[in-house]
Specification:
The protein is an alpha+beta fold and 145 residues long. Helix content is 43%, strand content 23%.
Length: 145
């Protein structure tokens, strides 16, 4: 009776190793569609050059640092260019963060074919909507295909 159970554990270990820790964890915690929709809306706006829509996805704390959509987009172009029209994206498992926030990770391949992980800090607003309160880019260790 233990053999099937051990085989199942061995298969899970092999699968986790093949997919990597981020993708293996994905089965445990699916991204919240309300959170991913905000990020996807902003990414589409970046690609279309729609600075107002992109800016509207930012939390009030971000909007306070960048007081209008034009200034916000210039910051994105200078420091977050991989987010402008990525070739591919894949949401990974979210993690809880301080203050009721969510850390939503997203694997992406930028327009030049380089791999990245974008780590979004998502913050629930008083009206219940999610907004982007921060983003950090980490260079991928594997070459993008």
């Amino acid at each position: 009776m233990r053999r099937p159970f051990l085989s199942l554990i061995a298969a899970a270990v092999v699968l986790a190793a093949a997919l990597g820790p981020e993708r293996a964890a994905r089965a445990d915690a699916a991204p919240d569609p309300a959170v991913t929709q905000v990020i996807e809306t902003q990414l589409r706006a970046f690609a279309a050059g729609d600075r107002r829509t992109a800016y509207a996805q930012a939390a009030p704390s971000i909007q306070a640092m960048f007081p209008n959509a034009g200034i916000f987009m210039e910051m994105v172009k200078r420091g977050y260019s991989p987010l402008i029209a990525p070739k591919a994206t894949d949401f990974l498992a979210p993690k809880p963060a301080r203050g009721g926030r969510i850390e939503q990770r997203m694997a992406l391949v930028d327009a030049d074919g380089r791999s990245w992980t974008a780590v979004y800090t998502m913050e629930r607003q008083p009206d219940g909507a999610w907004k982007i309160a921060g983003c950090r880019l980490e260079r991928g260790s594997d070459p993008a295909v």
